[in-house]
């Protein structure tokens, strides 16, 4: 596997590693305890692309191209602010309505949802098992800190009308 730079997590969950990065390494790592199908079942190039996509969404990129400080709090704050505004416009907030709201009124929140959607599409190209895919998506959604929308509705907001099959996954 190509070497992937470690993100600078100073000031964010001090002393812990990024769970998404750990998952991608565990899924790809050719160690018997990390897979059940076969070594090489997942392309290192695709894993590297998924990690780079993840870093571009969730981390500030340093001058040398490596991931720097986390943007998770800022992303979550932007989505939470937009969701608060959306909730003022409806009695029954849902993912599809939230997506439509941000596309029409908050380009920053819409970009965040689109960037995460692209990450989820990239994950589907990895060839993960349904359980691995579910775990990967759950880790990403947890990093956004739920703010009043259940994970399935948040997934619908992220996926939008791209492909509703993606929104049917039962996230735990």
| Biggest beta sheet attributes | 2 strands, antiparallel
Strand content: under 5%
Give the mean pLDDT.
Answer: 77
How many DSSP H or I helices? 7
Encode the helix/strand succession as letters.
HHEEHHHHH
Tell the overall outline: globular
Based on secondary structure, the structural category is mainly alpha
Terminal-residue CA separation: 30 Å
Can you tell me the residue ranges where pLDDT is under 50 for at least 5 consecutive residues? 1-16, 32-38, 167-172
Radius of gyration, in Å, reads 16 Å
Question: What is the tally of beta strands?
Answer: 2
Any idea how many domains? Answer: 1
Query: Largest beta sheet: what is the strand line-up?
Result: 1-2
Please give the share of residues in helix.
40-55%
Give the topology:
Blueprint: H1 19-28, H2 44-58, E1 59-61, E2 67-70, H3 72-87, H4 95-105, H5 107-124, H6 130-143, H7 151-159
Antiparallel strand pairs: 1-2
What distinguishing features does this structure have?
two-stranded antiparallel ribbon; disordered C terminus; 172 residues; disordered N terminus; mainly alpha
Task: Describe this structure in a few short sentences.
By secondary structure, the protein is mostly helical. The protein is built from seven helices and two strands.
Can you walk through the features of this model?
By secondary structure, this protein is mainly α. It has one domain (19-168). Helix content is 54%, strand content 4%. The protein has seven helices and two strands. The chain has a two-stranded antiparallel ribbon with strand order 1-2. Helix 3 crosses helix 5 and helix 4 packs across helix 7 (151-159). Residues 1-16, 32-38 and 167-172 have low confidence and may be disordered.
């Amino acid at each position: 596997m190509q070497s992937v730079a470690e993100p600078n997590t100073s000031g964010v969950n001090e002393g812990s590693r990024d769970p998404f990065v750990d998952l991608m390494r565990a899924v790809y790592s050719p160690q018997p305890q990390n897979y059940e199908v076969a070594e090489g079942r997942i392309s290192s190039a695709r894993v590297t692309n998924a990690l780079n996509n993840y870093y571009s969404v969730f981390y500030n990129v340093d001058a040398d191209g490596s991931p720097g400080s986390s943007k998770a709090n800022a992303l979550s704050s932007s989505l939470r602010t937009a969701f608060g505004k959306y909730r003022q416009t409806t009695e029954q907030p849902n993912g599809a309505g939230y997506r439509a709201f941000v596309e029409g009124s908050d380009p920053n929140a819409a970009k965040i949802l689109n960037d995460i959607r692209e990450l989820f599409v990239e994950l589907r190209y990895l060839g993960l098992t349904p359980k691995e895919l579910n775990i990967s998506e759950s880790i990403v959604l947890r990093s956004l800190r739920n703010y009043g929308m259940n994970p399935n509705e948040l997934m619908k907001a992220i996926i939008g009308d791209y492909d509703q099959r993606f929104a049917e996954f039962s996230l735990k």
